[in-house]
């Protein structure tokens, strides 16, 4: 069994004089999450907790530095997160989110880490996150930094899904479902409540509707099934994603050279 590492070098623990040397040649990892309803069984912090755990493990694996996780996310939508009618969800709008991410990155650019890895845990963040990074013109803003940004579920292989979850509804609807529940049972079992909810009609991908038939869209904020969730599945998925992170980074240009490692 592989052991998780949670104790890593934190960006905020550095002093100002230490920061440039600590970042020089290093990988800086930024988990970006959210505070969003996740049904009656999971805490509001799921979309933060999962990328934070993955980011910590990556920092440990590459001897990097952990940037403080971003706790607030872009707007929750009815067909991919239940929407804002559930209590507890706190969001920032898309334009503000893009500005916020871009300004954080502009500040980090001055330290020129060799590699910046952004790990996203909230479905609706993804396009906005990529727009924020691309909109900075990274070739100019980060001339010596390789940037890799991804949502954790993008690294789950089709084969893995087919074997473990044959009725998988698509990642847009896998909200508070088997994968998030299992990951939380592995990472933070103490905050997972015993109640389980199944929703028989997951929303279609890429379709927005008004008016929303709230009962058809979710059951208590769960868009799909939670049956079959377990800490064992969560552990397997966590390390499957970590293997995907290693593969993704190995397939990147060598830090600082702008060339592919395989070239
Ligand atoms: Zn989530």
Strand and helix layout:
Blueprint: H1 19-23, E1 27-32, H2 46-62, E2 65-66, H3 78-81, H4 94-109, E3 115-120, H5 126-135, H6 138-141, E4 146-151, H7 158-164, H8 178-187, H9 214-217, H10 231-250
Parallel strand pairs: 1-2, 1-3, 3-4
Helix pairs in contact: 2-8, 4-5, 8-10
Residues 38, 46-47, 175, 180 line the site of zinc ion.
The CATH superfamily name is Creatininase
Q: Report the bound ligands by name, code or SMILES.
A: zinc ion
Strands in their spatial order, largest beta sheet = 2-1-3-4
How many helix segments? 10
Order of helices and strands: HEHEHHEHHEHHHH
Q: Report the mean per-residue pLDDT as an integer.
A: 94
- What share of residues is helical? 25-40%
Question: Helix/strand-derived class?
Answer: alpha/beta
Which stretches are poorly predicted, pLDDT < 50 over at least 5 residues? 256-263
How many separate domains? Answer: 1
- What general outline do the C-alpha atoms trace? globular
Please identify, by name, the CATH architecture. 3-Layer(aba) Sandwich
Number of E-state strands = 4
**Largest sheet at a glance?**
4 strands, parallel
